[in-house]
Design brief:
single chain, 621 residues, alpha+beta, six-stranded mixed sheet, five-stranded antiparallel sheet, 29 strands
């Protein structure tokens, strides 16, 4: 019950000493006594209390209590915000796996995002705590707070650094440095590109390999329900044979959960020359792949081992013993923060055990084929070809600017895989000025100046040859057929299966031959070249090994062949006939039976043709 004339205080209760309540009540009576109306007696009820009971606090005490509570609440809110940001950052790092490296653009975006989020939370908190219709937050005061200025300044500074780093890394102001990223040598086609056996030529393209891989997987009843074929199909050179290799992968996360203990049991290898497709089963399954989860996921496994590496190309290869590995190339930026990418290191990860070994590019084992991905090599050559006279020239006048054509293929030369692509002018005409071969392991690059048809024109010529069948051409390979640069391409039906092969002369794409096999196609192609006046091994005289013989003439016979006189000699203790063309070896007329003679000759089926008479060794009786 409240005292008459005293306003009711809407305050909370706190626990206090009962004597303090009496003193407070007495002070209220004294303060209000002079203001009673007409001397009317004021009836006041004592403040109820009991030992340990609650009382209503004064405005001063209430304000002190609220301030203390607000300080504790603000401190708790700050701790909560920091904890939430830390948790979100950890979740982001676990799933996004950014490299902690100043050359990584993603980490810059992440760093910039942190003060942006803090600034947003700060502004929202200010409006929530202090804002309202009676007491609105003034934008000017908010912008002048110290914390707002600090966060805004950090964001602006980071944006300036990121923007400057991007600009200073671009080809616009570093054209000459970009142009020199790749060293290009000029090669001789007939010398460097020798005619190789067809069992070393990858006659299938990637699409055909994928069809063969899916077909093989469908025939494996024990694996088809649990696994699928991965989409990698790495081009490799396995024991001097061109192959494409791809692992299996879990069909879904449930299949991973039920098979994770044993891992992925096999990989598929496709012979690109013979189309032989085989499943290679492993004694122990692969447990570190991109298709695993949590700590066994390949990308997470690599990131936790190498937190600063920026990985580029990750390919699947096997060593000479068939052991599967992941070849993980790391990016190296040579210009500014983000420009001039090449490859710095190579991490080779055992797909079964997860063991990793870090190599410099020059120390990579010889069985490794893909260190530089094909797209990167082509980009580097485009820098080399277009930036010879600076960036502005590459955009406006385009003088001496060369670019690669719109496709590429692979050649197995020695123990390495080389990327082949044509080179044409930047104006995109229908002819090549040459082509390049680029080594995927060492980045060695050779340019060959061979003018001729662009690959698209050659493909159109081959398709025109079989237009009644409706076959489509795969991207061609470049071969050396009797020292003639020649495109070889597979012709596929609507289902993507290889049905025929075609050869097109690079310098004269009207010379087109087709065949059901490569050997048949080559024979038809050589015949067409001969008909068009191009010398081939069929039209050129065969070079035979010369031998030398010395003996006494036992018998001489003379004959006329096509108007030319020939002497046929028999030497002692031999029945071999030596044919001497008198017009070419006139000195033979000085020899008689019983004379000693030395002949240089080549062997034939029924006689030996004398190339030269060595007169210094001859003695006549």
């Amino acid at each position: 019950m409240k005292a008459p004339g005293l306003p009711e205080r809407k305050t909370g209760f706190i626990w206090t000493n009962p004597w303090e309540s009496i003193i407070l009540f007495s002070r209220q009576i004294y303060q209000r006594a002079g203001s009673t109306a007409g001397g009317q007696m004021i009836h006041l009820s004592p403040v109820p209390y009991s030992h340990g009971s609650a009382r209503r606090i004064s405005p001063c005490m209430k304000e002190t209590h609220e301030r203390s509570h607000m300080k504790k609440s603000k401190k708790l809110n700050k701790c909560m915000i920091i904890a939430v940001i830390v948790v979100l950052a950890a979740i982001y790092y676990y799933f996004a796996l950014p490299a902690i490296n100043i050359h990584n653009a993603s980490i810059w975006k992440f760093i910039i995002a942190i003060p942006v989020i803090l600034l947003i939370l700060y502004v929202v908190q200010k409006f929530h705590t202090n804002g309202g219709r009676k007491n609105p937050v003034q934008a000017g005061k908010l912008l002048n707070t110290a914390l707002f200025k600090i966060l805004a300044g950090i964001i602006l500074l980071l944006l300036i650094i990121y923007g400057a780093g991007t600009l200073l890394s671009s080809p616009i102001i570093n054209a000459s440095r970009y142009q020199k990223l790749m060293t290009v040598e000029t090669g001789e086609f007939s010398k460097d590109i020798t005619q190789i056996s067809y069992d070393q030529i990858p006659l299938l393209d990637r699409a055909s390999a994928e069809l063969l891989g899916e077909r093989k997987m469908g025939s494996l009843v024990d694996l088809a329900s649990q696994f699928e074929v991965a989409e990698l199909y790495t081009q490799s050179n396995y024991n001097d044979t061109p192959v494409r290799i791809t692992p299996l992968k879990y069909a879904d996360i449930i299949k991973w959960f039920t098979n994770r203990k044993d891992g992925i049991p096999a990989y598929i290898m496709i012979d690109m020359a013979t189309q032989e497709t085989k499943l290679v089963r492993l004694d122990e399954g692969m447990k570190y792949t991109p298709y695993d989860h949590f700590g066994r996921n390949l990308y997470r496994h690599l990131r936790f081992k190498y937190p600063t590496y920026i990985f580029d190309n990750i390919s699947f290869e096997v060593d000479d013993n068939g052991t599967p590995y992941w070849i993980c190339s790391t990016k190296k930026y040579n210009i500014g923060l983000f420009g001039g990418q090449t490859i710095g290191n190579v991490v080779i990860c055992n797909a079964i055990t997860g063991e990793c070994t870090d190599y410099a590019v020059e120390d990579v084992p010889g069985w490794v084929d893909q260190v530089y991905r094909a797209d990167l090599l082509i980009q580097l050559y485009d820098y080399y070809g277009t930036l010879k006279h600076g960036y502005i020239n590459s955009v406006i006048s385009q003088r001496d600017c060369l670019v690669t054509t719109n496709g590429y293929n692979y050649l197995a030369i020695g123990d390495d895989v080389w990327v082949y692509t044509g080179v044409t002018s930047i104006t995109s005409d229908q002819s090549n000025v040459g082509f390049v071969l680029m080594n995927q392991r060492t980045m060695e690059t050779r340019y060959y100046e061979v003018e001729g048809a662009i690959e698209d024109s050659a493909m159109a010529s081959a398709e025109g040859k079989v237009q009644n069948l409706g076959y489509k051409s795969a991207f061609p390979l470049l071969l050396n057929i009797d020292n003639e640069p020649t495109y070889l391409m597979a012709l596929k039906d609507a289902a993507g299966l290889v049905k025929m092969y075609a050869m097109v002369n690079v310098q004269n794409y009207q010379i087109v031959a087709t065949g059901n096999s490569v050997v048949e196609c080559e024979a038809a192609y050589k015949s067409l070249m001969a008909d068009n006046g191009i010398e081939t091994s069929e039209t050129q005289p065969e070079e035979k090994e010369t031998k030398t013989v010395t003996g006494t003439i036992r018998k001489i016979a003379e004959s006329v062949v096509e108007g030319n006189s020939h002497y046929y000699l028999l030497l002692d203790q031999s029945d071999t006939i030596y044919d001497v063309n008198v017009a070419e070896n006139l000195s033979v007329i000085r020899y008689n039976m019983g004379d000693s003679i030395t002949l240089e000759y080549t062997e034939g089926s029924d006689r030996c043709s004398v190339v030269k008479i060595l007169e210094e060794d001859a003695t006549a009786q």
